[in-house]
Amino acid sequence: MKIQKILNNNVVIARDEQDKEVIVMSLGLGFRKKPGDIFPSEDAQKIFVLSDEVKSQYDQLISSADPLAAELSETIISYACNEKELSLNDIIHITLTDHIDGLLQRIKKNVLFANQLTMEIRRAYPTEFSIGLYALDLIQTKANCTLPVDEAAFIALHFIDNRTDHAANSSDLETILKFVTDITRVVETHFQITLDEDSISYYRFVTHLKYLTQRIISGNFFTDDPTLYESVVAAYPESAKCVEKISTIITFKYHRKISTEERAYLIIYVEKLTRESK
After folding, report:
1. 241 and 190 in contact (C-beta within 8 Å)?
2. How far is CA 177 from CA 119, 145, 154, 256, 269, in A?
């Protein structure tokens, strides 16, 4: 592979053996290198092959953007892919770079935005929000500035929107965020507890809620299973009372009735969640 442009010590733009332009990530790959240098493809830990349409837009963007924006963006994407094992659309190389370029300009003017959904994003998408926090720390270090935590939520949205496994459109995302917030508040109020948002059980609970929201949106629910439901209610009566409140909210607010099997699984998740919290 031949280096076209060095973004940082770990990320370069290169041409592969088929003369396609690619983004290559590997520890120390760009260190003491210059455009035109050759390196073996075996040295690449992560390769992003951009589609022709995205490549054209990306080349245009980085030709006018602050070079630091591309460096920060690719470092953050590398972290998301390697450390958090996210699978992402290639368009994120454009959207995130453009966002960070705008942010760097706003930092110079001391113009920063508030994000009204920060808490909801943190609750519903802890993985993406953790990437946002990583990005926040990185940007603050590289740009020598202080940023509000709201910016972590803005960056998290790019990873929520561009996941290839379960990307959500903007209207569905708003529904998911509100739904997760509504349900977690019901659980906290019913049991008079504060949920540990960093716990494994919370992560599993929220993941279940997100998939339940998608089923609510699509109307594709699990079937009824009265036997399972009755046995779970008998085993966990207090969690069952909580889930009945949740079921009522879903009926009146989202105009859907969830099956007994859906309620049975919710009871199990609530029981595990609250048992750990207590």
Report:
1. yes
2. 9, 29, 14, 17, 18
What is the rounded distance in angstroms from the CA atom of residue 92 to the CA atom of residue 159?
8
Q: Note the pLDDT tens digit of each residue in 79-90.
A: 999 899 998 988
Predicted TM-score (pTM) of the model is 0.69
The pLDDT tens digits for 246-266 are: 999 999 988 888 899 899 999
- Rounded CA gap, 237 and 243, in Å? 10
**CB of 45 closer than 8 Å to CB of 25:** yes
**C-alpha–C-alpha distance, residues 76 and 72, integer Å:** 6
193: tokens are 């507890």
Which value, in Å, is the radius of gyration of the alpha carbons in the chain? 22
Q: Which residues lie closer than 8 Å to 164 by C-beta, 6 or more apart?
A: 87, 88, 89
